[in-house]
Amino acid sequence: MSTTEKHHFQAEIQQLLDIVIHSLYTDKEIFVRELISNAADACEKLRFKQSSGETPYQSDVALGISIAADEKENTITITDTGVGMTHGEMVENLGTIAHSGTKAFLKQLATDKKPDAKLIGQFGVGFYSAFMAAKKVTVFSRSALADEAGWRWTSEGMGGYEIETAADLPRGTKIVLELKDDAKEFAATTTLERIIKRYSSFVPFPIELGGNRLNTVQAIWARSKNEIKDEEYNEFYRFIGHDQDEPLLRLHFSADAPLAIQTLLFVPKRNMETMGMTRVESEVNLYCRKVLIQAKAKGLLPEWLRFLRGVVDSEDIPLNISRETMQDTSLIQKLNKVISGRFLKHLDELSEKDAAAYDKFYDEFNRYLKEGIASDFTHREAIGKLLRYESSSTEKGKRTSLADYVKRMPSDQKEIYFLLAPNREAAEASPYYEVFQSRKYEVLFLFDPWDEFVMDHLHTFEGKDVKAAEKADINLADTEKKEGALTDDEAKDLAAWMKTVLGDRVGEVRSSQRLVESPAVLMDSDKYMTASMRRILKAMKPGGGIAAQFKHDLELNPRHTIITRLHHMRQTDATLAGQGRGTGPRQRASPPGCSMIRA
Ligand code: ADP
Ligand code: MG
Q: SS3 sequence, 218-237?
């Protein structure tokens, strides 16, 4: 006689179920997509086993999914002939081990006023959507492993689940949903048919509803581009991307050399990492002649392209390769290089052809490109081409590429300059910017502290050094030489005096060759440290750390009236002239220009 085991759901899963059962009222229909998607995954896994030489239990049973609905009983039954689950897999997959997405999905639900159930599959917890429509879920499963038994899993969502043995099950999984009163509509065949056609046309296994075949199995990526309609692409995306929306971008290409590949990639509309997902996983699946080799294939794309979804099909992959070792093969590395190169080229072309579409992409996903600059040396220059920043030559709110920047560079300008500021107004008013304005050199305006590190990693672009404005070693244009400015000797004298007044509070004091409007500016004496890096370091270690080791140099503007007047006051005023013998910080003795330093 079989005994019934009682189990608790893991706490996070129970929390998720509470919400699924009690608070999600809209888009219930997506549970159909999620359960069919799991059935299809199970079939894929079995097909893979077969193709790599394993003989599964009931090896002559064809792979497929069948769905039945009973309007009288208010039940839906979804059956697949896939890999099935052992007892251990049932416990683990349906209730014990929370996927990494569970927490993120909970967070997303908590922050949304109208919780969005549609996203559940994207967070990797699609199975639990069954409880949106069902008051009771029963899962019968028989693993494809020869020596296993059949098991029956039941749950009403709250209060855990039960498992007991089930005799005489065929290979695969059967899920029976007893519908809630407010979900009876789903037991109608017409409703189910509509939903399945919407989301699951591209499931690569036959789906039958009440004995009728609904989908024609087709590998869209293997077909020729010009015979595929947008709507077909979008449907395919909705299926593989677990997404309700259309994709933002798609790239479909095939190549024969250096590798035979067919690739269909999509960029989703939304960046899930800004929606609470701490880190999305690449959802690009690797196929060989339409047979799935590995879902979410590791190593197939660089980490910074993890927001992509889609399919890569290559004839060159040996079918019996082990999933564990595949990640490191030179074949995968080659695929990685070809695909990421093509994708970058696609983005570059898009930015030329359809700037508005590229802007949309950039707004949502620019952080990934920047991550690529920092982490992917092979593609650094190519990604650099895709960066966009506001600059002193763009209108407010408009961005330029570095390539266009370089094209505009006057012949005497040797480097690319950037300036980090909270906003455009602050950038334009910055004393660091004055010398560039005077020289008519364009400066990229960066508004995100991240970007400064990005520029640091980029280092050069089209052979030009990329440099922080405050570190640039350039002087004002000759036209700025002004009537009444201090001579070099006078400026030197004033600077020396001011150093004695300010003592240890500054590093060097010197005459500046870069100021027009401002009387003085603080320059970091370290060659690489910029003002914002210093701020970040200080925030990390207040009062100490490396940041404290560097002193600011003070540069005085010998053309500014405050500075020239200060010089003249020193000549005429004996008290001032005598000042500075003492040491230490003395507020009273601070030169008037200091209060106007805008560093
Ligand atoms: P995901 O599909 O993103 O892994 P789900 O919550 O949809 O997340 O499913 C959880 C897990 O349960 C699956 O990864 C799989 O291991 C198992 N599972 C669900 N449905 C089936 C099925 N029909 N056949 C075999 N295993 C299944
Ligand atoms: Mg799933």
A: CCHHHCCHHHCCHHHHHHHH
